[in-house]
Each structure stands twice: as C-alpha cells, then as structure tokens.
Amino acid sequence: MTTTVTHRPAESRFVITEGDSDTVIGELTYETHGSTADLQHTEVDPDRRHHGLGARLAEEALRTFRADKMRVRPSCPFVAQYIQDHPEYANLLEPSLVAEDVEEETADSHR
Fold first, then answer.
1. pLDDT band at residue 106, thresholds of 50, 70 and 90?
2. Which of 63-72, 84-93, 101-110 has the least mean pLDDT?
3. Where's the N-acetyltransferase domain (predicted)?
4. Distance between CA 31 and CA 38 in Å, rounded?
5. Extents of the domains making up the chain
6. For 22-37, how does the pLDDT look when each residue is reduced to its tens digit (9 = 90+)?
7. Helical packing angle, 53-67 and 77-85, nearest 10°
8. Contact at 8 Å (CB) between 30 and 37?
9. 3-state class of 82 per DSSP?
C-alpha cells in the first residue's frame, strides 16, 4: 500500500495517508513564530510504527521549511533525533539551538 505525505498549512501539520483514502495514519504538528517553525509533535498509528513513516513526515517538514527559508525548533524529541541523525538539516536549527551557540552559552555562564 502506498502512502502520501501532505502539508496542511491551514491546520499547521503534515499528515501521512495510506492508499486512496483520506484516513490519516500519522501527523507532525507545528506552530510558526515569525520565521521559525516549532516542530512540536510527531505521531504515527501504533499499528504502523517502525516502518519509517515518522521519518517521512520529518523529512517532508524539513524540506518544506528549508524551501520556505525558515528556521526550525525541534520541540518534538523524534524530530530532534532525526536532525541529529541527518546532519544535512542541522543548518535549519534556529541559532540558539546550534551546537556552537549552546557550547558558547555554557562557557559564558561559567565565567
């Protein structure tokens, strides 16, 4: 069965559907704040987990926000791990979440 990822900006979410139905089997929700998208929650139907559907949602969201020239804040632990595993998306992180900035803030707080 084929699956399709669709961005529904009016609902602030990406959904994945199966076959020709409109039945949602997974979603990634977000909120936008200026030029930053806060990726908040990823959920896949329990019967369809461990088949890469969450990764497809994360990848499509990150590609979309890259094309829209937006930064991302991965509040969702799944998306945060996805970015860590796919460093080609690390440049989308909002500046306060870039590793060098976090290290610098930590060093400054110890001075």
1. very low
2. 101-110
3. 6-94
4. 5
5. 3-109
6. 889 999 999 999 999 9
7. 80
8. yes
9. helix
Output the CATH code of domain 3-109.
3.40.630.30
CB distance 41 to 57 below 8 Å: no
Question: Which strands form 36-44's sheet, in the order they lie side by side?
Answer: 3-8, 13-18, 24-33, 36-44, 71-74
* Amino acid letter for position 81: Q
Question: Using CA of residue 97, residue 103, residue 108, residue 111, what is the dihedral sign?
Answer: positive
pLDDT, residue 73, reads 95
Entry pTM: 0.84
Q: What mean pLDDT do residues 63-71 have?
A: 97
